[in-house]
Amino acid sequence: MQFKDIIGQEAIKQRLINSVNENRVSHAQLFLGPEGAGGLALAVAYAQYLSCEDKQPDDSCGVCPSCRKYQKLMHPDLHFSYPFFAKHKDDTALTFIEQWRDAFTTNPYLSLDIWRGYLDADNKQANINIAECHQIIKKLSFKPFESVYKILILWLPEYLDKEGNALLKVIEEPQPNTLFLLVAQNQDQILNTILSRTQLIKIPCLNFEDIKGELMNKHHQTETAAAEIAYLSNGNMTEALGMLQHDTKSYHTLFVDWLRLCFGNKGLDVLRFVDQASKMGRENQKNFLRYGTSFIRECCLLRAGADRIVKLPEQELETAKKMSAVINNAMAQAIITELEKAHYHIERNANPKILFLDVSLQIIKVLSFKITPTGTHYIPN
Ligand SMILES: [Zn+2]
């Protein structure tokens, strides 16, 4: 992650770069800013800059061996810690490192909700457990392997509980050339003992123009659409990116593709969909399921010849017409029931992966085998 890839926050970037060039790098720093401001991305870019072998005046070089490893979050002197949902008491952040790299490289503005989608979270509470604290102490006890600095980025220290006190010693008396970067959102939920031992870097939320520009340049939004999302997102890039996916056009494509896969009973492709859907984040998943329900309802209206009251845009209408020729009312009702049930469970924090797999299997039953999800009755036309 380079500074140039981070939206706005020019003053913070400059401050971080200056601290390196003026040799004022504090060994324990707390990046504190609201969700979607880019705290985690800034910490990673800062760490990459510190380790870069060919530092430019305003950014890391992006091509040296260190930068290349950093881009993949695979540098031996870069460590991460974050909340997770432990299945076994020995689970640590390292257990989930693959998912973590995937999540961050896909979206450096990820939230805990999005992160949850990468893990089999069930109803568990996220936390950073004592096993992880011990792991951190161990990791930081080694000398750096390749870089001048060994860096640990701890995302959301709010989830440390009182076990975090085990870390005080490494924060207070670190090994030489060891940096501890904490990235937090809520100051009052951090252990005071940790707060008092770190240098605070306050990160403001993004401004309207930064978000609008990003949406236009990188996400191909029209000026009007970008302005609308930027306005609604309140300076929160995570939210803005989520809203991009709320675009009903993409819901439409995703939903119709899903039905097609189920109709063709294409196992592997269905699993791929399940994977994609499980990473959308809860709000997005709920909206997607809601979109599906109303789309199927519109198909029923078309079947009933009530074209006049169907509100779909032209292209979606075409698909709905084709769909309504294949799906009869009993099937439509069975699918709607499944989607509504899924919505209910998503709201109650069901594991999205298991949930979307289950709904897919039910829809396959309905579409490919014409049986109701609950029984084996043939669905009449
Ligand atoms: Zn470099």
Automatic annotation (TrEMBL):
InterPro entries named among the record's database cross-references: DNA_Rep/Repair_Clamp_Loader, P-loop_NTPase
Pfam families listed in its UniProt record: DNA_pol3_delta2
SUPFAM superfamilies linked: P-loop containing nucleoside triphosphate hydrolases
Protein name (record): DNA polymerase III subunit delta
Biological source species: Mucilaginibacter rigui
